[in-house]
Write a structure and sequence with these properties.
This protein has 241 residues and is of the alpha/beta class. It has 9 helices and 8 strands. Strands 1, 2, 3, 4, 5, 6, 7 and 8 form an 8-stranded mixed sheet that branches.
Length: 241
């Protein structure tokens, strides 16, 4: 089994519908032997999420807690198919990592051509490091085109563990991820895993994602969560572009 050392998609009580503090999350990460955790609370477009000032003030948090490196980030909402997200550039510039995701309270469903074009525009944003939970059939994608855009822009595609769990509200994710991972393998495009944890016990729990990757014999070298230094380098290089 591949050893996952990084969780890049986690939420705290600040998201409005999550149930653990940053201290509880980081303690759990330390107990599970993680090296890095990204705190990526929802941005203002989600009901109950914090205002922009919350993300501007993340600088008050330490860069390490309980021996685990803390990346101060956000899960931003894609708000239109022109590639806009709901945090200003000045705020994005102060964050260590940014996920951008499609959430139904913030953007309507659309056809494959429209969604694909919009996602690729988001990927061209130098501040966006990861596209969160792709594969939802309500937001259909030309997965080959998106994988090629990932390679070109350095924007990583997420294998979202929560979306693979039984009872997930996102339809078609498993089948779409199988197709997406096939293109990633063929084009040698790295991916990242995220738990999308909304409670501290789920931090670092990647059972469903790992089972999928192993069933496809997906190369561990293309899963950046297995190599913290390489992952941090990849994120930094995207910003330098």
């Amino acid at each position: 089994m591949m050893k996952i050392l990084v969780d890049l998609h986690t939420h705290t009580v600040s998201s409005g519908h999550a149930y653990s503090t940053i201290t509880e999350n980081m303690k759990a990460a330390s107990q599970k032997g993680l090296a890095i955790v990204a705190m990526t609370d929802h941005t203002p477009g989600i009901p109950g999420a914090p205002p922009v000032v919350h993300f501007d003030n993340l600088k008050v948090l330490p860069s390490e807690m309980f021996g685990v490196k803390l990346l101060k980030g956000a899960e931003a909402n894609i708000i239109n198919y022109e590639g806009e997200i709901d945090l200003p550039q000045a705020t994005l510039n102060g964050l260590d990592i940014v996920l951008a995701s499609l959430h139904s309270p913030c953007i309507g469903f659309a056809d494959k051509e429209t969604v694909t074009a919009g996602i690729i525009k988001v990927m061209e944003n130098p501040y966006v490091n990861i596209i969160g939970h792709p594969g939802d059939n309500r937001y259909p994608l030309d997965l080959e085109a998106v994988v090629k855009a990932s390679k070109r822009t350095g924007t990583l595609l997420e294998i979202n563990n929560a979306s693979l769990k039984p009872g997930s509200f996102r339809p078609g994710v498993r089948e779409n991820l199988i197709e997406m991972l096939g293109y990633c393998k063929a084009y040698e495009v790295p991916v990242v895993l995220g738990t999308d944890a909304h409670f501290h016990e789920d931090i670092g729990e990647f059972k469903e994602a790992i089972e999928l990757l192993e069933s496809l014999e997906f190369p561990a070298k293309l899963v950046l969560n297995t190599d913290p230094d390489r992952l941090l380098c990849h994120i930094k290089q995207k910003r330098l572009k």
